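User: Quick one: structure for sequence A, then sequence B.

Assistant: Sequence A:
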Amino acid sequence: MSNALLRWSPKLHQSVTKMSSNVYGGTHKRALAEWVLFNKVLAPVSFPIKIWVAHKIVESHKAANKVSEAGGSPSEAAVAAVTEAVSASSQTAEAAIAARAER
């Protein structure tokens, strides 16, 4: 990436190199840069995943409560909920693959 940037835009490469040397020159600047990277770049990706995982956990607890109220064991309900979640996510993945194949 650096070589391509150097070849196509040497001025931009120089400014990026200067900024990165400033960031890695001091510990506080590096910490700030890592914080910005984590909170501004990775958080929009990781937050929806965390919400989805929390949703699946809540749904599995609901299923476990329904099974235990019906007289079954909670472990059976947990296995059933996980199996259902895996099959739903694999169906979603298959649909996404099929949609891409149609393009």
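Sequence B:
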Amino acid sequence: MLLTVDIMRKTIAKYHCAVLEVRRKEAEIVNRRFASALTEVKNRDFRQEAKHIRNSKNSISSVVYDCCNADGAANLFSTK
């Protein structure tokens, strides 16, 4: 039993380290692509591009299982 728990803890720790590394590398890749895009095309506006990237956020879905509002989704999950 203790061996299984130890293996699970190590696996979870490795998973979290891998997720953090991927997120770090993702930011580096995005920054590198942004910089290369700005240097390759001279007619792009740096401030406008940066503003566009900062303002683009992932939005929360407003439709869940064909329910279009929070009350409908809450009722759907409360009945399950």
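The chain has a mean pLDDT of 76. The helical segments are 2-40, 46-55, 70-79.

User: Thanks, that's what I needed.
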